[in-house]
Amino acid sequence: MSALSNRINNLSESATIKMAKMGRELAAKGVDVISLSFGEPDFHTPEHIKEAAKQAMDQNYTYYTPVSGYPDLRKAVAGKLKIENGLDYDFSQIVVSTGAKQAIANAVLCLVNPGEEVIIPTPYWVSYSEVVKLAEGISIFIEAPVEQDFKITPEQLEAAITPKTKLFMFSSPCNPTGSVYSKNELEGLAKVFEKHPNIYILSDEIYEHINFVDKHESIAQFETIKDRVIIINGFSKAFAMTGWRIGYTASNKEIANACDKMQGQITSGTCSITQKAGVAALEGGLESVLKMREEFKKRRDIVYNLLKDIEGVKVNLPEGAFYFFPDVTSFFGKSYNGNTIKDADELSIYLLEEAHVATVGGDSFGDKKSIRISYAAAEDKLIEAVRRIKEALGKLN
Ligand code: PMP
Ligand code: GLU
Questions:
Q1: Is the pLDDT of residue 1 over 80?
Q2: Which ligand 1 atom is nearest residue 103's CA?
Q3: Do 112 and 230 sit in the same domain of this protein?
């Protein structure tokens, strides 16, 4: 019998991390693996941000910080929300955490009681349902298929709400689909929430700057529900700072205080040096962000044109983030060398073994029909990866 708690035994390993690990292991054996599994910008952190971190060390910002973050950082976040998003938050409503991942965990653990329901549109980011499990909540999934551009309608939302609903969780731009909700679409959802004053809305906006259609729209702009919205954001994607571990929530004061109390017992907040780098990131302007966005858009177009020419791969044109989530059902039941592909996860493993391209199967995103392909990689790598994928898929019959 396992010594471990049911809590950890019931938790699934993060599929994105698992596939990245498998890719790295294969590469360590000398195999030329192209990794399109991890959602990680392949750019370096901009120089002015790194400089600020070096200075922070030299100035001895090496002690415990306030649990919710240094006031100058929280003020810079509140300033960003005002200037870029037109949203009013006092700095006391901002809690800085060890990545957006911890910000999400804080919010869910602070809000959800055992048995309460959390509505999550599928496909969703892998950690959402798992953190709901940790809180002993119940995930209620709403299907948003590719035909709906992976977005839910207000009618679907209304139908999923019960007296037990506590929270709604989504990302826009979306990981894994790249779909972006328009202002109108968000307003439609906000109108439903207006009728249900006990439901909170976790709005994961970490891909805010990787949006190819328009300016970013936050569901927190609707004043009637703003007090119940918890904005999640971070620095990993916009500023290529995945390893620095910094993200934040913007919420009402009650939730902010609860998140402070939660992480006061778990991490004591994020790294002091990282926080000073975070201030420089927010104060340094968006030049590097916009350059990255242009590069991502170029890659998106290249990969889209290549993918849509592969017979059997159904793909839409994502409007943001840096992922494709093509439907690959037409390959299910096909075989190669005696191996029959049953589902998207097996196809993803097949692609790793046969094409040496790491992707992620859709199951842990709540969609068994698709695989996720990250295009946060150099152009030549992407072109070669899709060539290999096409060749490997062509061998299946
Ligand atoms: N939300 C989404 C949708 C993500 O894709 C990620 C992965 N980076 C996170 C949150 C967590 O980001 P981090 O912890 O690196 O800030
Ligand atoms: N969020 C990224 C992804 O979806 C990084 C991995 C993770 O944080 O789980 O791949």
A1: no
A2: 14
A3: yes
